[in-house]
Amino acid sequence: xxxxxxSSGDTPKQVFNPGIQKAxxxxxxxxxxxxxxxxxxRSMSRDLAEADPQPAVNSRKIPRRCQDDKTESPQRQALRxxxxxxLDLLPALLNRLxxxxxxxxxxxxxxxxxxxxxxxxxxRFPSPAxxxxxxxxxxxxxxxxxxxxxxxxxxxxxxxxxPSSCPLIVNFASHRKPGGGWLNGAxxxxxxxxxxxxLALSLDRTDYPLGLDEAIYSPYALVMRGDLASGHxxxxxxxxxxxxxxxxxxxxxxxxxxxRLRTIPLNPALRRPHSNGRHERHGSGGHxxxxxxxxxxxxxxxxxxxxxxxxxxxxxxxxxSSHPHTRQVFERDRDRNLSKAKMRxxxxxxxxxxxxxxxxxxxxxxxxxxxxxxIAHCWxxxxxxxxxxxxxxxxxYFAVYDPKDEGNFAIFQRVLAGKKV
Length: 421
What we know:
- This protein has 8 helices and 10 strands.
- It is an alpha/beta fold.
- The longest helix has 24 residues, at 74-97.
- The two termini are 28 Å apart.
- InterPro entries: CHP02452, Macro_dom-like, PARG_cat_microbial.
- This is Microbial-type PARG catalytic domain-containing protein.
């Protein structure tokens, strides 16, 4: 498979260093719904700056719209302010922990640059991991896993966590923009992670756009905020010093964007023979391929191609409410195989870097309109491939956040919950 993005091999990256100067620690935001008061945040910023006299890395400033813009939603305005506060607080916080360099490091890998796992490297835990499917935010699950690992870890609690004690999460990334739309108030899974952690500091703009076969591994991301339901409150307090904040590792990888799907009956006796469907147009046509695969985030048009408007999708197209006896699958085998190759890359990164706890998820099953049942089955098939047998992990969680009960959580629970891998 051709590498369609910029390639930098496995060379570690250090990014987000536009210049060394004292960063302003006073947040500009007046947004304080459910969060700490202005005085509390200002006091915390001042305390961090005084505790760390070193110059902090200058934070990026986000573009601000006119104050009289009446068309913007209050939530988007609030999230934009939250992103600015996060950037304001991180430099002094990371300098205090002496982890500013770690927070900027990342490594770009591809299908071809990361080798297959060798069985002799397997830690061979006493028993297989039992998959748990949780209807919750990705970071919330990872934070609980981190806390559990710390209670079982010998030595002082303030010492730097080992990779094996840091859960690895999958960031459903934008293929073209580091952090997606987090600086502009967007709210999908990637943006949610960036609002709450230092992940965005490790995403190097020169690594974008991500190729179909590429991912970015960020070994260190400090979690310093709660979730949206808590108002993105800061986790630091007199009883929670910065040294005890959760640390996670992340694989940022882009799912296929609106691949072609076809509808099949759930009863196998009613199914017609499946072809790879290059000329098939039943079910859902209208989406291009690039390099033999659907482009992960949109159309790439050549001069001879006619632009076709995207079709509409429900958030969970696997089982239609109007047709409960059917579900949707990938129309083309190559799209299914590419999705599995991306999952394989995630698992290789996890094992190669010594991660014992995984937080996976409904990869591309939101606005990207990948079929949830197919994605769940793909995960299970890859996890059970011979390469990953032998008990590589202690814990395998699927965080499938489905607050509106649109079906994704129920599908993943049915396919994956309780399975041994």
